[in-house]
Specification:
Layout (H helix, E strand, L loop, with lengths): L8 H8 L2 H29 L3 H28 L10 E5 L1 H20 L2 H25 L2 E6 L4 E2 L4 E9 L6 E9 L12 E6 L4 E8 L5 E12 L6 E16 L6 H18 L6 E6 L11 H7 L3 E5 L6 E6 L14 H25 L3 E5 L8 E2 H14 L11 H5 L6 E6 L14 E5 L4
Parallel strand pairs: 3-9, 12-13, 12-15, 15-16
Antiparallel strand pairs: 1-9, 2-4, 4-7, 5-6, 5-8, 8-9, 10-11, 13-14
Amino acid sequence: MQVAEPDSFAARWWRGIDRPGWRNFGVAMLVLSGALITALFSAAAAQEGRVGVASVTTIIALGLAAWVAIVIVPQLARRTSLRWLVYQVDYRLTREGIVYLVAVFILVLAAVNTGNNLLFMILACSLAGILISGVLSRAVLTGVDLKFDMPEHIFAEQPVLAELELRNEKQTWPSFSLRVTGENKKGAAEVLTRPVFFPYISRQGSARQKVELTFPRRGVYQQDAFSIRTRFPFGFFEKSRQVNSQLEIVVYPRVSPTDHFYEVLPLLSGEMASHFRGRGHELHSLRNYLHTDSARFVDWKVTAKAGRLMVREFAREDERRVMLVLDPFVGPPDPALGPNAIAVHAERFERAVTMAACIAWHFNEINSVLQFRTHRFTSSMAPAAEIIYDTLRELATLKAEDSAVGGTFLDDLATDHEIFKIILTSRPQRSIPTALWSSSYFLFIDSL
């Protein structure tokens, strides 16, 4: 079996070449060359005083150029991707560019004052360098698409790895020295806070970069646009192109337990054990006695009738059915706290949100059955693994309320005595319904 040898670059290029397009281009160049020669002949005839010949040759030259513009140029345009024309590219003069332009200005003064042909040639080369820089940098920026991938679940203060991908869709030219930055409206919390550099992207290829991001606080982060920048090839100008984005992510509260959480957890466990002690007395079924069973579960009446030892089985009640409640009422700032009252108030509420997230995550880790409630959100009573991310999402966007939102919020909880409740609140103890104390454990936000 003969294995085909891989094609060379020249062979692939020859197969992919647009022959009709190149043919039209060759015809256009040939006709325009004829028009140029005819125009030069017309100028020479005019200098010799042959006005008739000069007029005829001028008309012929213009006719040839018009034919190329009307017939050939539209055909070439239809075969060319012109998406790059709609890209808005912004230019910013760099420090190196300022130095270069100052040198060009000095060359202009020297060339004009001296009339030296060598200086004019150097000046022309310098100006051509600026032109080439603009053309090449625009070619580098165009035809590049951006993709930004984030993990599904993100927690505050915990680093996450995102992936930024640039794909070069140009069929001929690679892209060099690209830098991606985030662009946001003033004041909005952005996702990409530092630039990511891509040294090289091959034609019709892609390049990926891992980016470590850390979000300092919970909440919603968005990215309005990304900016692709380059200083290629000379660094005189920084060219940039914006790519619109609708990226929006929700950052959950931090769930790494604090020392205060470990202080609360033993008290919480003790309260739960006390609440559920003595439960589990609902008869489920009867079965034959096993040597591992306790004698106190023997049903002697059924044993006498059956003639063999029978024991009672009871329905096991889950002692980890818990309702976690965060009351967003924080009231007005305490004047005793001084000028920093608002900041202290906000910090306390953030600690409460973090504590609620840590408690919810703890019950998730021990496979508890959990329900979470706020004044505007109520999850189902379900295994914590099923509702944990809905809970964290609600905590990520929850804001403190300046007034008692839903005055009957805690009163509604007092009617359910069977479920153990963990309530984080700022309300005064005297305002809490008496019926709640027997089935709840309270964490007061002001003491966190």
